TrEMBL record:
Homodimer. The modification N6-(pyridoxal phosphate)lysine is found at K226. The gene is hisC. Pathway: Amino-acid biosynthesis; L-histidine biosynthesis; L-histidine from 5-phospho-alpha-D-ribose 1-diphosphate: step 7/9. Its cofactor is pyridoxal 5'-phosphate. Residues 32-361 form the Aminotransferase class I/classII large domain. This is Histidinol-phosphate aminotransferase. Belongs to the class-II pyridoxal-phosphate-dependent aminotransferase family. Histidinol-phosphate aminotransferase subfamily. SUPFAM superfamilies: PLP-dependent transferases.
Length: 365
């Protein structure tokens, strides 16, 4: 069979290793596995969300309300925007997919940071577009500006705070940059880690309402996968001006978010105490990993997210050796070798998990 030529060069997304793999390959009981590889909420999900989902199991045979009115109203109210400014996605990933397909044609250019979420260039590649990356590890908006002026990309991805490095941009810098971008260029502002960033430094917080009121060409994306503990439910959203949302709707499959996922997300928004407790714990525990790295003389990237990326160039083990050793012990971290870094990314866990991981790291590094 002849597949589309772009498929010849498209990589397959490499996800964090699942608990099931460690159970299968190393015979470790699942309750003993510590998975700090995919930036999930280590406390799980709010108990009110669990109750809501259990109650709603009877709705499984029915398609969801395809207008997603209740969810979108909750998102609109909590973000101070109109319902018409919101679109639900099967993960925020689906919003990236809508964004690329809505503007990109074969041969177009997409601008992104040197180290960033790998799905941006995969979605862009699916449309036949080419990705231009800055040569910076942390976001550097001067380099974005240089490449923007030279190449006039159709689409720009900004991720702040950014995965896999953890860097965040001050809001004022982002707005100064956006002020120079043509309204003909679509910008995706990925705010998957925004809550963590604002907890560390309020100057990094960008509100979707400000984006909607100031920039008709920018879509803000958010997710329930991280701070809300709903990674397994696959639910995210985009917030933008109505014209963008209308275009995205034309690309949307019917019932793109499951019944249980939309109910879970709507309920999760109500329990901000659960979110705030996690955010406080995350910052306290993140600082433990930073202190550890400093004590070992290992450079790390200051993180505004729920993970810490530690460079291992000066360590006894490479990132691959460390990753594989810990995997066999039932500790799953993220090896950043595929990002061209000899670095390990550790999702900040609960105190009991972090104690074990820090003990092992201390012994190995
Ligand atoms: C985890 C993550 C997301 C969220 O993806 P979902 O599809 O909503 O689960 C988005 N962007 C970045 C950079 C992430 O790390």
């Amino acid at each position: 069979m002849r597949f589309q030529p772009v498929l010849d060069t498209l990589p397959v997304y490499e996800a964090g290793k699942p608990i099931e793999l460690v159970v299968r390959e190393f015979g470790i009981p699942p309750e003993k596995v510590i998975k700090l590889a995919s930036n999930e909420n280590p406390y799980g999900v709010s108990s009110s969300v669990q109750a809501k989902v259990s109650e709603a199991l009877v709705k499984m045979p029915l398609y969801p309300d395809d207008s997603y009115r209740e969810l979108k109203e909750s998102l609109a109210v909590s973000n101070g925007v109109g319902v018409k400014n919101v679109i639900q996605g099967n993960g925020s990933d689906q919003i990236f997919d809508f964004a690329t397909r809505s503007v990109l044609e074969k041969g177009d250019l997409v601008l992104q940071n040197g180290k960033t979420f790998s799905m941006y260039s995969i979605y862009s590649g699916q449309c036949g577009a080419d990705t231009l990356s800055t040569d910076s590890t942390e976001h550097d908006l001067n380099r974005f500006s240089d490449l923007y002026k030279k190449h006039h990309p159709k689409l720009i991805f900004l991720c702040t705070p950014c995965n896999p490095i953890g860097d965040a941009l001050p809001k004022t810098d982002v707005f100064s940059f956006l002020d120079t971008i043509s309204p003909e260029t679509l910008v995706v502002l990925d705010g998957a880690y925004m809550d963590f960033g604002k907890t560390r430094d309020p100057k990094t917080e960008i509100l979707p309402a400000e984006i909607v009121s100031k920039y008709p060409n920018v879509v803000y994306t958010g997710t329930f996968s991280k701070v809300y503990g709903l990674g397994g439910m696959r639910i995210g959203y985009g917030i933008a001006n109505e014209e963008i949302i209308r275009a995205f709707y034309k690309l949307r499959p019917p019932f793109n978010v499951s019944q249980l996922s939309q109910l879970a997300a709507t309920e999760a928004l109500k329990d901000q105490d659960f979110v705030n407790q996690y955010l406080e714990s995350n910052l306290r525990e993140l600082e433990k990993y930073e202190t550890f790295s400093e004590s070992k003389g290992l450079p790390f990237f200051r993180s505004y997210a729920n993970f810490l990326t530690i460079r291992l160039d000066r360590a006894k083990l490479s990132s691959t050796e460390l990753f594989e050793t810990l995997l066999r012990e039932g500790i799953i971290l993220r090896n950043l070798k595929s990002y061209g870094l000899n670095a390990i990314r550790i999702t900040v866990g609960r105190p009991d998990q972090n104690r074990i991981v820090l003990d092992r790291l201390s012994a190995l590094l």
